[in-house]
């Protein structure tokens, strides 16, 4: 079968990158994408190239961020469309980033865009069952046609590796400092653990709230926290390998945080790192407390500090969680497993065509 892959975000974006790799294991893939920095120019480039070329295909796969593409794509093709929704525009803009009030024109448009995009697709993919539940409830959609495809990770990049130890107990996290990540709870947990001179924290990444988190650490006097800034993708495995424990999150108690498994969690599992995650419905779909991850109540810095201490004191538990997490990743979340799931989803989509 021939699959056209088209996306609004860059093809190098982690979700698109992994899906492209998985698709190419089973299908002939034609790609229309753009790496232009401008959101508008990137989508215009994709649109023009699709209209001009009209590549022959059996199924169209709309990758992330595909919501704007779903406004026009169904008008130009009769091919079945598999739409990787991945996230809710409405939830992100109105509740996570709080750019619009839900009842404002911007909020109402975001709501309509999510609903319209899903209704225009033949099949819709989301990253967890909890997220499917959110979409069907919030946008009044039937669950028929929805499929779950876990985020996974590229094991050619993220795999177990030996790291040099300097004797410290390093707790590692990286992110874009979004509210749903709950980084303030990591900073406050670090303050609670500053009495142990071996424990130090690294919170890498950039984002709107980074300065606020640095100021919080300074104000608390948490001298055991470092903010090294952005780490290039290819250098991430090295940074992760140095860690004693990784924080997968999400650690806020927002609605969105309850519905998704953080991409970094899959990377940590793929590297056999003992990983602490928020105890929420999405993480519980895949992970089991003290078997392949350590579950921590959300928005609770004291509980997070206690989880870190327990893992520091119990090396056997740390090792077991790390390797059981790795085994889970290999058996359920590798590129091979994601590719097999995509093969079944796309075959089913094509077979369901009338006639």
Task: Explain this structure.
The structure is a single chain. With 355 residues, the protein is an alpha/beta fold. It folds into 2 domains: 169 residues, Glycogen Phosphorylase B (Rossmann fold, 3-Layer(aba) Sandwich); 164 residues, Rossmann fold (3-Layer(aba) Sandwich). 44% of the residues lie in helices and 14% in strands. The strands form 2 sheets. The protein has a 6-stranded parallel β-sheet, sandwiched between helices. Strands 9-8-7-10-11-12 form a 6-stranded parallel β-sheet, sandwiched between helices. α1 links the parallel β1 and β2. α7 packs parallel to α8, α7 crosses α13 and α11 crosses α14. The longest helix has 18 residues. The chain is globular. The two termini are 17 Å apart.
The quaternary state of the protein chains shown equals single chain
CATH architecture of the largest domain: 3-Layer(aba) Sandwich
* Rg for CA atoms: 21 Å
Contiguous helical run count: 15
Question: How many E-type strands?
Answer: 12
Q: Biggest sheet, open or closed, and with what strands and sense? A: 6 strands, parallel
Beta-strand content estimate: 5-15%
Number of domains: 2
Order of helices and strands: EHEHEHEHHEHEEHEHEHEHHEHEHHH
Distance between the termini: 17 Å
Contiguous runs where pLDDT drops below 50 for at least 5 residues: none
Major sheet strand order: 2-1-3-4-5-6
At the fold tier of CATH, the topology name of the largest domain is Rossmann fold
């Amino acid at each position: 079968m021939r699959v056209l892959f088209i996306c609004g975000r860059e093809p190098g974006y982690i979700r698109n990158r992994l899906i492209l790799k998985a698709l190419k294991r089973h299908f002939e893939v034609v790609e229309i994408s753009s790496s232009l920095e401008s959101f508008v120019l990137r989508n215009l480039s994709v649109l023009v190239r699709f209209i001009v070329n009209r590549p022959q295909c059996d199924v169209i796969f709309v990758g992330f961020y595909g919501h704007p593409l779903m406004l026009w794509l169904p008008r130009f093709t009769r091919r079945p469309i598999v739409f990787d929704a991945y996230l809710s525009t409405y939830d992100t803009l109105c509740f996570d980033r709080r750019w619009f009030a839900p009842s404002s024109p911007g909020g109402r448009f975001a709501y309509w865009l999510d609903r319209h995009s899903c209704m225009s697709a033949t099949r819709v993919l989301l990253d967890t069952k909890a997220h499917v539940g959110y979409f069907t409830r919030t946008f009044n959609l039937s669950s028929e046609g929805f499929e779950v495809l876990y985020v996974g990770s590229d094991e050619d990049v993220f795999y177990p590796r030996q790291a040099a130890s300097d004797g410290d107990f390093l707790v590692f996290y990286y992110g874009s400092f979004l509210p749903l990540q709950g980084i303030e709870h990591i900073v406050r947990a670090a303050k609670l653990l500053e009495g142990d001179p071996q424990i130090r924290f690294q919170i890498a990444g950039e984002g709107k709230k980074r300065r606020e988190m640095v100021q919080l650490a300074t104000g608390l006097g948490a001298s055991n926290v470092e903010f090294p800034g952005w780490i290039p993708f290819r250098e991430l495995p090295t940074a992760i390998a140095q860690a004693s424990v990784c924080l997968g999150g999400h650690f806020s108690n927002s609605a969105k945080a309850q519905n998704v498994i953080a991409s970094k969690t899959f990377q940590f599992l793929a590297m056999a790192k003992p990983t602490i995650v928020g105890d929420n419905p999405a993480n519980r779909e895949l992970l089991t407390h003290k078997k392949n991850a350590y579950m921590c109540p959300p928005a609770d810095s004291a509980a997070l500090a206690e989880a870190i201490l327990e893992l520091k004191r119990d090396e056997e538990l740390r090792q077991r969680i790390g390797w059981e997490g790795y085994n889970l990743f290999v058996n359920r979340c590798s590129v091979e497993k994601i590719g097999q799931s995509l093969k079944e989803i796309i075959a089913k989509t094509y077979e369901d065509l009338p006639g």
